[in-house]
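2024-03-11 09:14:02 INFO worker-7 job=invfold-0412 stage=load source=structure_tokens
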């Protein structure tokens, strides 16, 4: 029944009736798969991808690379759980390579984000260092190309 979940992941507004028609599963099967996936937390959340730039909303997004010392008995999970509780944190991942955790966070200004990194993240016990990267422009979000309908605004090349 993975096909049902793939459809919902691509379009959270798809109705059980639409999914049934696409997959050829019965309506009852589709409803039961969805209900079970919600109960067992396979489906965690339904989400809309919003292009806030269309509304003129200002938001600063940063990706912070953290080098941390794993804790005895819990490894990276202990510090990751602490970081995940901050409301500014949008996503958090354990990484391979030159740093350990990748933290995506949001704020209203660059100063707000910088202050969060300096005052809340960098000072956590076990944090060895941080590197902050500010996102300059979003082209694609959660598999969706943003501003596709606005067309190409580049000037034509004249020879």
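2024-03-11 09:14:09 INFO worker-7 stage=emit residues=159
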């Amino acid at each position: 029944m993975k096909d049902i979940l793939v459809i919902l992941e691509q379009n959270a507004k798809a109705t059980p009736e639409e999914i049934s028609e696409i997959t050829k599963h019965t309506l009852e099967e589709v409803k039961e798969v969805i209900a079970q996936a919600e109960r067992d937390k396979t489906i965690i959340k339904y989400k809309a991808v919003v292009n806030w730039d269309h509304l003129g909303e200002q938001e600063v997004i940063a990706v912070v690379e953290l080098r941390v010392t794993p804790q005895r008995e819990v490894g990276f999970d202990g510090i990751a759980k602490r970081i995940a509780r901050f409301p500014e944190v949008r996503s958090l991942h354990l990484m391979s390579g030159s740093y350990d955790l990748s933290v995506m966070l949001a704020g209203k200004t660059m100063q707000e984000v910088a202050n969060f990194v300096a005052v809340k993240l960098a000072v956590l016990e076990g944090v060895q260092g941080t590197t902050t990267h500010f996102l300059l422009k979003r082209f694609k979000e959660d598999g969706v190309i943003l501003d596709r309908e606005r067309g190409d605004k580049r000037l034509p090349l004249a020879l």
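2024-03-11 09:14:09 INFO worker-7 stage=report msg="The chain has two domains: 2-39, 56-138."
2024-03-11 09:14:10 INFO worker-7 job finished
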